[in-house]
Hints:
- The protein is of the alpha+beta class.
- It has helices at 22-43, 183-186, 215-229; strands at residues 45-49, 63-68, 74-75, 82-84, 94-98, 106-113, 118-122, 125-128, 131-133, 160-164, 169-173, 189-190, 194-206, 238-239, 246-247.
- The strands form three sheets. Strands 1, 2, 5, 6, 11, 12, 13, 14 and 15 form a nine-stranded antiparallel sheet that branches.
- Strand 7 and strand 8 form a beta hairpin.
- The longest helix is centred in the N-terminal third of the chain and has 22 residues, at 22-43.
Amino acid sequence: MASKPAPPASAAPSGLAPRKSLWREYGEALIIAVILAVVIRAFVVQAFSIPSGSMQPTLLIHDYLLVNKLSYGIRNPFTNKVLVSLGRPQRGDVAVFIYPQDPSKDYIKRVIGLPGDRIQIVNKKVFINGKPYETPQAVYTDPAINPPPVHPGDSSRDNLEPVVVPPDSYFVMGDNRDHSFDSRFWGFVHLDALRGRAFIIYFSWDSALPPDTPLYVALPLALKELATKFTWDSKTFSLRWNRLGKIIR
């Protein structure tokens, strides 16, 4: 019995998909990278920069830091509400949160009071549940002590009548105690407003320019000085090498 002729080589299945074009491969890789970046930013880690000195000396103006968004749970990226709880803020955490009086802004402060705590401030000294509480990182640069507030609008910076932290809420303060706008003035931070816990400084720079000068303005000015005068103007832009990779405590 004669055997059947073999199919032509061109008709034999190769088992391989047609080769994609180079542009298609790059495009797909770029799309995957963007999706991963969005997911990581929404659920895992997010970068923030420091615009003010309210957390000095722990955090300086122009420090760039990473925030662990899983510290306090997996959150809905649109509403920020907790979907899966993975932990609660601990006293001493440096936390980023949505500013209660303006949801378009993010603030960073240190967690001082936990739910149920009784907080009182007497002549700049913090008391929690009747006991003195000292934060090693806290600094006071103004020797003057504001008296206890009597009228609406009086400052409660140095003296605060006892308040009890509500459930699922936190009392926060800046380390630069005399120059921080925090829970002493506007109240508590709810759990749903928390972004995450700051854990590392990945970039930091300094400049004699006004504090609100952005990086994309300061760096080109220094580069221009280098190109025209062959010298680096460290007053315009300089890296704080000793702060890169610093763990935030």
